[in-house]
Design brief:
The protein is an alpha+beta fold and about 500 residues long. Among the domains are: about 10-55 and about 165-235 and about 320-365, FAD/NAD(P)-binding domain, CATH 3.50.50.60; about 245-315, no CATH class. Helices cover about 35% and strands about 20% of the residues. It has 15 helices and 21 strands. The strands form five sheets. A seven-stranded mixed β-sheet has the order 5-4-14-15-16-13-17. Strands 7-2-1-11-20-19 form a six-stranded mixed β-sheet. The chain has a three-stranded antiparallel β-sheet with strand order 8-9-10. Helix 1 runs parallel beside helix 6 and helix 9 (about 345-360) packs antiparallel against helix 10. The longest helix is centred in the C-terminal third of the chain and has 27 residues, at about 370-395. The chain is globular, with a radius of gyration of 24 Å. The model has no long low-confidence stretch (mean pLDDT about 95). The structure holds flavin-adenine dinucleotide.
């Protein structure tokens, strides 16, 4: 039901209810209470009986911005969440079985104003003057050699691997410090105003009900408010993204933590390995049309090391996005708003973007349809861009060894992605539109890594003679090598910087 709000008198927002206490719920509670806690009455409802999805442990560098807004101390956060540093993702067996590449968070080489570094590198390869594309990226080389340190002037781009349950607890403490009230209860029903369609209250199993002016749906895949109550339709993208299931399991760490996520492709999906300080998060993402749960679990368990700490758990999902993530007086964040598989660790980022956008348009003096429409327009553009980037990994590959990979190779691409791939293949060019998450260098690393070789380079690269080009490339590569050689090992650095406190001795 969509209602024209122009006929509804705007009502100030003073009471906010956040339904759900997973990563989305507590991130929202932390940010809103920090910024607007003095003006709002904020309540978060979560159910211990239902619990959280319990996965979501790899992040991207934008999380540092979120923590900076919240003035979170990095060492405290990392110690509390068993976090390690992440410099990128190692994609193994994606282009072909046995072929690996890293999508790192860094810049590669040095751009010219007319042409990106890839054009100079491309000419260097043709003239046999250039090494691998990654040789010109500090973060990528540091990842390969398992090294890490903070560098002056934010000289190292990084993110974190973290324990999702501990992160929610860390944010809960933070948010409660800013006055958020937590209610442990199960939401039994959602009450709506028949005239406006707005939500008026959530009925709890504890017999009481909670009223509010604005409701934030963080109830995970259940989408109790935005989906079940408000009836907002879900755009299903499974014709582009075939994976619909995951199995997650935790294991004890058996070797020093590497500063990157591993993403290992299999016959009908892929497996993640996320190293934390004392354990490893593992899982397999797969398409149930091509492989059953038992076979997927067998593949996962055959490719993990260390003692198994948890029982393998199957999670089902539908790739896609709710057509409107803000409807009436309800805004959905996290899994309630949609889900794209974690191949590029974008879900926590999307929660963060939703929160920042809501803060920018916070309806203190009343909810206007113009704000709702703009919020939904920006949200849709953002997620469609990420969707395209994810499809790229599956479609551009030489793998044809299983029915799954053959289906991926033959799928009909969204026109926006088709255009991007063709542009790069024809001319080596990549352009980033405002507000797009993935910068040129991300697209280039993945397109080269997945096997696209541009047909030509920009003529600016031809203005350099061989000797000049050799010196240009060697200078960049040499600088990367010298810096990486001075970095400490990642595990040593983590232990010194933010080693998680030992658990209290049992009595
Ligand atoms: P949930 O964690 O499911 O929380 C839902 C909350 O709602 C819970 O507190 C629950 O108790 C409450 N609730 C539900 N129903 C009721 C009710 N009736 N009454 C009261 N409370 C209720 N993201 C990343 O960024 N990086 C990753 O590496 C990554 N990996 C992932 C791997 C998999 C397999 C999956 C499925 C997701 C992954 N994600 C990842 C996404 C990430 O897990 C989620 O975005 C994140 O955990 C947020 O979840 P959530 O808070 O929306 O939902």
């Amino acid at each position: 039901m969509t209602i024209d709000r122009s006929s509804i008198p705007p009502r100030p927002v003073r009471r906010v209810v956040i339904a759900g206490g997973g990563t989305a719920g507590w991130m929202a509670a932390a940010a809103i209470s920090k910024v607007l806690g003095q003006r709002l009455d904020i309540t978060l409802i979560e159910s211990d009986e239902i619990g959280t999805v319990g996965v979501g442990e790899a992040t991207i560098p934008t999380l540092l911005n979120f923590h900076s807004l919240l003035e979170i101390n990095e060492q405290e956060f990392m110690a509390a969440t068993q976090a390690t540093f992440k410099l990128g993702i190692s994609f193994e067996n994606w282009r072909a079985v046995g072929a690996d590449y890293i999508h790192s968070f860094g810049m590669t080489g040095v751009d010219h104003w007319t042409a990106g570094f890839q054009h100079f590198w491309h000419k260097g390869r043709e003239r046999e003057l250039a090494g691998a594309y990654g040789d010109y990226c500090l973060e990528l080389k540091a990842a390969q050699l398992n090294r890490f340190a903070h560098l002056p002037k934010n000289g190292m781009n990084y993110a974190y691997h973290l324990d999702a349950s501990r992160y929610a607890r860390f944010l809960r403490k933070f948010a409660e410090g800013y006055g958020v009230r937590r209610v442990e209860a199960k939401i039994d029903a959602v009450r709506r105003d028949p005239a406006s369609g707005d939500i008026t209250a959530l009925q709890l199993d504890s017999v009481s009900s909670i009223e509010a002016d604005l409701f934030i749906d963080c109830t995970g895949f259940r989408a109790l408010l935005i989906g079940q109550a408000m009836g907002q339709p879900y755009q299903d993208w499974s014709h582009w993204l075939f994976a619909d299931s995951a199995i997650a399991v935790q294991t004890a760490a058996t070797r020093p933590a590497v500063p990157y996520t591993r993403s290992i492709a299999h016959g009908a999906g892929w497996q993640w390995q996320i190293p934390l300080q004392e354990r490893v998060g593992n899982g397999i993402v797969f398409a149930s049309t091509y492989v059953d749960d038992a076979a997927a679990e067998a593949t996962l368990m055959a490719n993990i090391g260390g003692a198994v700490l948890t029982t393998p758990r199957v999670i089902r999902f539908k790739p896609g996005q709710r057509a409107r993530t803000w409807a009436g007086n309800c805004v959905a964040l996290g899994l309630a708003s949609g889900f794209l598989e974690p191949i590029e660790s974008t879900s926590i980022h999307l929660i963060q973007r939703g929160i920042v956008r809501l803060m920018q348009m916070f309806p203190t003096d009343g909810i206007f349809q113009t704000d709702i429409d703009e919020y939904n327009r920006q949200t849709a553009a953002e997620i469609e861009h990420i969707r395209d980037f994810i499809i790229l990994h599956y479609h551009v590959t030489e793998r044809r060894d299983t029915p799954f990979w053959r289906a991926c190779a033959s799928l009909d691409l969204p026109p926006s992605l088709r255009q991007r791939i063709d542009l790069f293949a024809d001319s080596g060019r990549v352009f980033r539109a405002p507000n797009e998450l993935f910068a040129e260098n991300s697209w280039i690393q993945v397109m080269l890594g997945q096997g696209i070789h541009p047909r030509q380079h920009h003529p600016s690269a031809d203005l350099m003679g061989d000797e000049e080009l050799r010196a240009f490339l060697d200078n960049i590569r040499g600088g990367v090598e010298r810096t990486v050689a001075q970095l400490p090992g990642h595990q040593d650095y983590v232990e010194r910087y933010c080693g998680a406190p030992a658990p209290p001795a049992s009595r």
